[in-house]
Amino acid sequence: MRKIMAPCDGWCTSLDEVPDEVFAGRMLGDGLAIDPTTGIIFAPCDGEVLTLPDSGHAVTIRGAPGFDVLIHIGIDTVQLAGKGFEARVKPGSRVRIGDELIRFDLDLVARAAKSLMIPIVMISDGIVLEHRRSPGLIAAGELLFEVLFEVQNGAAGPASSDPTPAIERDAARIERRANITLKQGLHARPAALLARRAKALDMPVMLIAHGRESDARSVVGIMALGVRCGDELLIRAQGAGAAEAVAALMEGLEEALRMERAHGAAAESPVPPVPPVSPVPLEPAQPAMRTSAPQLRPGLMSGVCAASGFAVGRATRIERREIEVEEHGLGELHETGELARARSNVKRRLERVRDTGGAERREIIDAHLEFLDDPTLNGDADALIGAGKSAGSAWRGATRRAIDALQALDDARLRERADDLKDVEGHVLLALTGEARPMHLPLPARAVLLADDLLPSELTALDRQRLAAIVLGGGGATSHVAILAAAMGLPMLVGVGTALATVSDGQQLIVDADHGVLDPAPSVDALIQAEARVEVLRAQALGQRLAAAQECHSLDGTRVEVFANLGSVADAIAAVDQGAEGCGLLRTEFLFIDRDTAPTESEQLAAYQSIANALAGRPLILRMMDVGGDKPLKYMPLPHEPNPALGLRGVRTAMAYPQLMRTQLRAALRVQPYGIVRLLIPMVTDRSEILAVRALVALLMREIRPQQPLQIGAMIETPAAALTAASLMHEVDFVSIGSNDLTQYTLAMDRGHAQLARRTDALHPAVLQLIGAAAMAGEAAGKLVAVCGGVAADRSAVPILLGLGVRELSVVPAAIPALKRQIGALRIEECRALAARCLSLGSAADVRSLVEQTYAHGEEST
Predict the structure, then answer these.
(1) I need a surface site. Which of 36, 430, 542, 610 has the fewest CB within 10 A?
(2) pTM score of the predicted model
């Protein structure tokens, strides 16, 4: 019988209370846990320090062969990488009961860890625990439990004398199975997200599917698994912190689901309708995203619509030259250095241009940056250099191996990611030769670009003003080039096939991407009709832009402001072009995430000022950093959130880290001209949060802009804020309703949950009642109530929101013209009557049905 003493002061409890399935399930062994009240860990018994990782978050003491006790400080603390921990001993040290082992910062670890609970576990086999301490307060050095070795083969003694070090055995293999519900499976975006999480861990994690295995740090490897929606993925880790590592990857999958839902919402924004005029005879008309050939008259070519639209122009071919590389290298050291230099140069250049375009370009470049750091690619390249290849030959060999693996998959979306690898391959090979993309290809006016395929960097290098359309012999409708083309407003056909090679340079073409048709030799009459249609579409687009540039009023003259939700300078430029009257929501967290240090005041000021300049004097409503929860920061010890939606986020994070808030506010107050910026506080639940921010703003105003007012608003994202809106109105100048969060908190449904996606509807009467309560409070106080969530762009929701009293809608830039047109056809009194009826219904489906019936009967066209 051996005694194990409490290693620290605190509250003793069962392992069942530990929020980790490995410890709670006794996978490592039996024991007890302590919720600590001090930050000192003492030796629980005499023995030798068997293992103590560099992170300092755990220690194993061997009292005798087969008698090993693990003390694990907190849950998920391995990810702190030693921050807050100070080891007082080293592996191999002999210790006696009560000797100091580790000191740790109780507050820091408590904020950063999933839980501060400390499991004390016997990780040896063949033992029984007796005389366990009952739940309650315990002091360091008091008896925790006694250990009895089982009797085997008639002799008492340890059941195992396995000399394997305990930390290698303590977290033996941990596995979790995940059913993938991402609609497109593990394509580039979720693969990059998982790889970033895996790279932040201090241990390898493997992903297994379809009998294939990949390092979780490798984007290429993850995509090559070919995981589709509905497939099962096995996540496996082994060693100290294995459970935390697996959990981090599971959280990455959940984050990918949330991102997919957000992208889906953006994709569903309304766009202006295009008249069904077509000079190209089809029998019958086909849907835009057709995958089989239509019945065409002779001479026409069919393809797949990758980006909708209609265009007339001249054929302009683009041929990509093969970049020549030397096969044999000048020595491993030289070639390794050359490859590292080229990758570094490409990385810096991509990072510089990442934010010069919209969200689509940022995401694509982020994926390319992940390829540059991919451990599988770089490992294969290093191996080829070691075999005598040059840097260029090794990089090409490594990327072509990965491309072959992707192209062998039976998932078209993943096969299309091979283009991104080709793009990255070319960037690095050109950097090795001292060249760089873009190509600066000269284009004639109204060029219809013809190619077998096209890379993202090649498209972004071309002059959009001289491009009329894109037609590819190969390619895919969900490729990154297709995403860019749609964002640029370029009609694009793909999959036309080898027949495209018969089209002569300079030939006049008609591209009807909506119907998946290319006319390579149109008649004079067909060209006249096509040119006429282009002019009609151009006039319609111009009319919509001109109309959208005007102030927005309802049919009966009520003023309704239409603003834009922004995340970059490019977004601001697009918003102004589409008729935005200002920025209703600037998501400033783009400055704070995916970096190693916090943004400086000057860096933030430059970003905000650039967006203000693009808005040309229009209001800029700047939301304070909404980080924390599902948006962790590398440089801030935010706690792990078992439920990110209910944790430390929004204004709660800002108040917990006032220096970050102070820096952001100083930058915002310095934007010129003064008064353009209005401040928006996220995740408000009561007046105290607003007052705290106001107090800091007042202090900074005395330093920066004495005697000048600043408009401050609160986001209504929680039921608490909606229900107490009348009280909040005393402390703010305006409020903005974040319908996405308000919906999930009201319905208790995660808006990123795949199975609940259809039910997480902001038109649920309960959500509408909360919006109505906030709008009523704003009207009584004479203060503006806006909606900046996804529901603002929902055509069914617009008349209800106006009827409830909302007078500002903020949406994605592309939705602005259609939204202004819709508002201009509505009468507010009729909207009020409709809204009142909707509040008494029983479901979102009932609400949508009523709206559809109301406007289907011609009461008012929307």
Answers:
(1) 542
(2) 0.47
